[in-house]
Every structure is written in structure tokens, then in C-alpha cells.
Amino acid sequence: MTDSRPATALRALHRPGDPLILPNAWDAGSARAVAAAGFPAVATSSAAVAESLGHADGEATPVEEMLAAVARVVRSVPVPVTADLERGYGLRPAELVDRLLATGAAGLNLEDSDPRTGELCDVDEQAGLLAAVRAAAGPDLVVNARVDVFLHATGDHAAVFDEAVRRARRYRAAGADCVYPILLADPELIGRFVAAVGAPVNVLLRAGTPGVAELARLGVARVSLGSGVYAAARQRAAAMLAALAAGGDPFAG
């Protein structure tokens, strides 16, 4: 029988106005660093995990490798772990749930872009996927439904706002615990989105996004950094290597 306590603990951390902060990890070492810093949960980044394993993002990672990476993260920390699983790597919902639960993870992200084409998925099809995942998982997984409308927008985010809200409401009705309008950064639109959806909202923290205190004021319940920590670590490593190759001090600066 699956232990639902990690999911219960993770779900309780999604508090509008007092958001769960998730500096996404990519391996056991980075996960331990997140937990050691005092964060109450760990999230993986599919892009960071994929690149660290030598693959590209966009479901190019064999599902066995992705799930093995998630399992290593789970084993390495004493806090709940939620896994970024793109759109499920082609697994049927019941199999996806069974295999993820076997890793010990307490949650997952599912996005509404087709990794084969890069296009937005049909909203009914995506809602069906989320409903099937919820039916298979019961309360044992926290489902974070990514809404990719703003990721695909080529102009003003206000022009596609209503479509993002429509999708978020459908996904929530299908059983998602949280909705994730990735790349939504305008504070006015974030506030409007939170109010319109009436469910826990996840915002990606990056350059140009309001800070954590402002996101809390806007009612956001979850803040994640995506591949941002991984990118910063790689940038720092590249700078050290360049200094060393030039005969300088890799620890300076």
C-alpha cells in the first residue's frame, strides 16, 4: 500500500500568500543542498536532469533514466520530492503513476505542450490525461498542471490571458492540485490569474519576475526556479575552468 503522507505534507505546503519555494534540483547532491538550506520540499527540473544525464530537454531522456534520477533524489533527502516529468514520456497514466510512486516521489509536474511538435495540446486531451493521473494516484501524488500558453505567446501576454485561465480551470476541475502558468511574469496579470483560477498557483522565479515577497502578496502558493540553479552552477563552473585554463585563480571572484 502506498504511503500518502509525503503527498499530504507536500500538498499542505501550497499556501496562497505564503508560497512554497522550490529551488529545483537535478541530482542527489543538489537535492541535499536544497534540503540542507532549510527548504521543506525538493523539486526536480526536467531540463536540468536531462542535461546532467547527457540528454536534451523535451522527453529526449529515456524514461528509465529520468525515473532513476528521481529515485536517487528521493533517497537522498528527508523531505517530500516532486518530479518534473514533462508530459509523461509516452507512458499510460496508470503506468506513469505506478512507476513514479515506486520512486517514492510525492508529486509531479505535467505540461500541456506536445514534446514531439512543441505545440500546445488540445485542452480536452490534456484534461483527460490529468483526470486519468488523478484517478490512478488518488491522494498519493500532488499534481502540478503546467499551462504553456504564455510560453507559446509571441506578443502581449494579456492577449492570451483568458485562454490560460480557461485551461487552468479545466485542469483544476480534472484533479490538479496546483496550476503553473509558466513564464507569466507581469505582476498585474499574476494577481488577476490567481483571483480568476481560485486554486494554488505556481510561478517561475527568474529575471524579470516579481520577487518572492511580491509574489506572496499577489497570492501565489508555489514558486519554483526551473533550471535556474543548475544554469547558475554551470556558469560558475565554466568561469572557474576558464580562469584555471588561463593560469589564473579559479577561486577568485
Automatic annotation (TrEMBL):
Signal peptide: none annotated. It comes from the Bacteria. GO terms for molecular function: lyase activity. CDD domains: ICL_PEPM. Coiled coil: none annotated. Pfam families: PEP_mutase. InterPro entries: ICL/PEPM, Pyrv/PenolPyrv_kinase-like_dom, Pyrv_kinase-like_dom_sf. Keywords: Lyase. This is 2-methylisocitrate lyase-like PEP mutase family enzyme. It comes from Micromonospora kangleipakensis.
